[in-house]
Specification:
This protein is mainly α and 169 residues long. The protein is 62% helix and 0% strand. It has 9 helices and no strands.
Length: 169
Amino acid sequence: MTTEAVKNTASDRLPEHTPRLAIAKLAPEVYKSMIQLDRAARQGVDPVVLELVKIRASQINHCAYCVDMHSKDALAAGESVERIVQLSAWEEARHFYTAKEIAAIELAEAVTVLTDGFVPDEVYAKAAAHFEETELAHLIAAITVINAWNRFAVTSRMVPGHYTPGSHR
């Protein structure tokens, strides 16, 4: 099979789904408040760490819109394709990340998946060892905010693929 035959074109792809609800238009005060909360949460958090945790939480929550958005934002900020691709299997690819980034990713997973009803002490302790208290508080807030965004986007079926990096800042 030739390379040309392997490539698919837009006409070969399945159609996009239709969004269910335009939350930004129907609940503008909620949407504006979420943007303000997001802006406040990210203060003092390393932008690379921030995008990594947003991508990872969005992967866990199956939020294609947010995976698309934060992968594009990370790429625009200089993040490598390799580190973004490996994020879904970070436990097998730890060598792509710093110890601080791994602590943040583990914390993001623990906050996102509360199946045990709490964030394990060892996960929190590892994050606390790598982040100053104020930065840790903001990181936890940012993880909480991306989880809320994921729930809005997944429930309203926001369509991935059309986001332009930085357009929601």
